[in-house]
Q: What sequence folds into this?
């Protein structure tokens, strides 16, 4: 893999307290940090129906173009804040998506990643049961 390709270093599995996941994108280091007090599983289970979905146990990296939203509304001030946070290496949680790539939680983080030209993003995937 050459220097223009992103390299992946997953340091901890989803749900680990204070887990840090780093992704190098081009010449920029983007750092995604989970808050020590943030209950990632509890937060994401809020968005899912356990009768219909199962939550994958680890953070995955998906190409930004394989993730989509059907929401047209976005608050540009929130997008700018997340874009600044990404550029500064501040705490950003992964997106929650269906296995189809549809965003359930994290629309503004996705728009921010597009704004700063990040090609791969951390996601937690909900699989349809059945």
A:
């Amino acid at each position: 893999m050459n220097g223009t390709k992103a390299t992946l270093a997953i340091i901890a599995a989803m749900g680990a307290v204070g887990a840090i996941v780093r992704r190098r994108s081009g010449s920029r280091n983007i750092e995604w940090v989970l808050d020590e007090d943030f209950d990632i599983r509890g937060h994401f289970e809020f968005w899912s129906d356990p009768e219909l979905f199962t939550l994958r146990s680890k953070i995955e990296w998906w190409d930004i173009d394989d993730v989509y939203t059907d929401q047209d509304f976005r608050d540009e001030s929130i997008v700018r804040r997340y874009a600044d946070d990404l550029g500064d290496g501040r705490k950003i949680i992964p997106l929650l998506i269906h296995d189809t790539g549809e965003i359930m939680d994290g629309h503004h983080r996705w728009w921010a990643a597009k704004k700063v030209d990040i090609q791969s993003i951390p996601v937690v995937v909900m699989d349809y049961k059945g």
User: Anything to note?
Assistant: Residues 43 and 96 are 10 Å apart (CA to CA).
